[in-house]
Amino acid sequence: MIISVSSASPYNFSFSLVTYLSHDFVVRLSDQRHLMASPSEPIFYNFQFDHMTESVLLVVESSDELCMTLSVQNISCPVVDLERNVQYRGQWQTVSSKGGMLLKKSDFPLGLFIVFVVHSDDYDCSGHKGSFQFKRNKAISFSIEKNISDENYLIASLALLSIFAGIYVVAFFIGIKCIRCCPSMYIPSPADILSPEEPTVSTISPIAEIAVTRAWHSSDSSLDETDIDFLHDRDNDKDVFRTKTFLFVSDLSRKEHRVLSAKAQLYFWNLITVAIFYSLPVVQLVLTYQKVLNDSGNEDMCYYNYLCSHPFWNLSDINHIFSNIGYVFLGFLFILITVNRERASLPNNKRYGIPHHFGFFYSMGMALIMEGVLSACYHVCPSHSNFQFDTSFMYVIAMLSLLKIYQSRHPDINATAYSTFVALAFVIFVGMVGVLDETLTFYVIFTVIHVLVCMVLSAQIYYMGRWKLDARVFHRVCGVCIADIRSGPRHCCRPMYPSRLVLLIFGNLFNWALAAAQLRYHMVNFGTYFLAVFMVNLCLYLMFYITMKYLSGEKIMAHTGLYLAASILLWTGALYFFFNKSISWAGTPAESRTYNRPCLVLNFYDHHDVWHVLSALAMFFSFMCLLALDDDVSNRDRDTLPVF
């Protein structure tokens, strides 16, 4: 043994040195060790892999929250165990009360040192130094457990794939059964399909048009929306029939189905373009993050659940990536169902049911696929800086769903694909600013905008799209108020659409309460809150639509009710696992590790993986609910279907 002692003092001094033989220096599998460390007394242990073990899980816990660095280094001298240089060798992470590392034999063929270095302050773990403490003795306990085998990887992967394969099989047989057993579904005759305004010279043309194949992929993606907008309405008196007190779907479905269908298809093609240009840089960036983590050993770069993260190839956390496969499978299945639904539809049906523009549904299916792709990219290296990768297409899904519900009763009035994606770009920009600058000033500004947008959209829904927000809006409001006053106090105080007004007031009050609660109590981070605003309003609008259907004498079909019930149950379960989180990108890496928890299913998937599976199923059944929401009125004349 060689001991070297040095000092910066210019004077000679005497000292004494005592050495002890450590009997517990070598750690073995399943050993539980307890120790005390301090900034002046770092501690390290040795571990050797046996010939039967390829990887192990190091689990570290502490009863206090003093900051320390956990480092794992190759067996070489000297051991780096100082606060100022411990980050320059091996794998390391900051730890306050909980930590973990997956250690592979291929990375440490000669064995390893486990090093515990307590910091002189807590800045690296909490983001603030706090008060100075003279005694910083940290109680630490750790153990080393054998990791799962390759067989566990295979079993867990096949189990998840079998779930979605089973859903495909069930969907296939249900589709076959519906085709064989539902010939009684009402199909209008060729004479009914003809528009009343068209001369019935011959039925050959309509029948020929019905026979034309209308697969979604046959639409022209090069169609420019400006070309569509130059096409005139079938009737030039829309300013007359759209100002009736009570509108029906027939009043707002006078444009050519071909034109509106082409406009809806533009959503799909624009979404594909956005998805490609958005996802390619994301993939490059997260793979670069992963490479830097592997090369540097800095495990503070990525916010993994270190107690349940399983490596594969160069990826550190394959289970959280693989569990997103449900979004992709179910998104593609929904597109296939929509294709089948469109082929069974009658494009020239101008008298019966709700006009369906299937481009919205294709876009929703593609958005679900991209949510899975980008969520997987986010989980390559989850952190505060790339949280939006996981949520950007959730905004798209919410926006498209809102537009689809609105389009159901307003076929001729809808936002263009270009304006929609410009609005989505602004939404993502606001989300980015909120994550980077989560201050009280920003929250106040956002809350004001939130309330104003709710009021504007409420007016749009209440007046069924028959009002404009321009410079003369206050002049028109004053004119209406004066006319109502002249008509008498009873007429002035009585709303034209009382049930609709009550529902909209309830929705606004709910939004105001949500905004006030977040502003006052700061319940969640802004990214989660902003997404919750969209999802809550989507649920409120769907509730409004279903309630108005019942008030109008319509009903919900059995299969639609089944989709709705399944989505509610799945969303309830999914949200439970979402809020029982295993990481938190909103804090520091050490704070995120305090949420780490062991695997929940098959020793492979944790709470967040279950959230991925359940939320994918919930969104799929939500989409199916929207697709079948108006099946009960498919054989009703549009002159009897109210607009709301």
Short account of what is shown:
The protein is of the alpha+beta class and 644 residues long. Among the domains are: 26-147, Jelly Rolls (Sandwich); 255-435 and 497-640, no CATH class.
Name the overall outline: elongated
The stretches of 5 or more residues where confidence is low (pLDDT under 50) are 183-236
| Count of extended strands | 9
Taking the alpha carbons of the first and last residues, their distance comes to 86 Å
| Arrangement of strands in the largest sheet | 1-3-8-5-6
Output the helix-strand order: EEEEEEEEHEHHHHHHHHHHHHHHHHHHH
Largest sheet features: 5 strands, mixed
Radius of gyration of CA atoms, rounded to a whole number: 31 Å
Overall structural class, as computed from helix and strand content, comes to alpha+beta
Mean pLDDT across all amino acids: 83
The proportion of strand residues reads: 5-15%
Roughly how much helix do the residues carry, as a percent range? 40-55%
Compute the number of helices. 20
Describe this structure in words.
It is a single chain. The protein has helices spanning 123-126, 150-181, 190-193, 204-211, 225-229, 238-241, 257-296, 318-322, 325-343, 359-380, 388-409, 417-436, 440-462, 473-487, 489-493, 498-521, 526-551, 558-579, 589-593, 607-627, and strands at residues 26-27, 32-37, 43-47, 55-62, 68-74, 91-95, 98-104, 112-118, 138-146. With 644 residues, it is an alpha+beta fold. The strands form 2 sheets. The chain has a 5-stranded mixed β-sheet. The longest helix has 40 residues, at 257-296. This is SID1 transmembrane family member 1-like. Belongs to the SID1 family. One of its GO terms (molecular function) is RNA transmembrane transporter activity.
